[in-house]
Predict the 3D structure of the following.
Amino acid sequence: FSVRRLVRLRRAALLHDVGKLGVSNAILDKPGALSPDEWQSMRDHTRHTYEILDAVPIFRDLAVDAAAHHERLNGTGYHLGLQGAALTPSARILAVADVADALRSDRPYRAGLDQDRVVGMLLEDAASGKMCPQSVAAMVEVLHA
């Protein structure tokens, strides 16, 4: 990526979860499994991210990539229903980075996973067509550094 694209990617990464402002803390901090309604509210954070960023002119060009961090190459992600070539390289990178961070981090309902398990899960997602193989390979390199 050029320096300009890296700056744009970094900004999208910093803003990708801004939509969680629209999700109740009771859901975000819940120590157990989410109900179907709670899960839908959580999934809505990507839509909120898009709406917030799209409404701010200086962030408008980041809205789709930032909101696409739960999209998957095979179409199994959410909320935009993007897949394959519709996912930009930046969106693909954000998706992998978001999964790696989520798996490595402690959550109210589980401890963070160890590096080898995270790498294994990412490699499975790449092999199954969910995640971009090049983005996963780059993340694996970072995790092993």
Remarks:
- The helical segments are 3-15, 25-28, 36-43, 45-54, 63-67, 89-104, 115-127, 133-144.
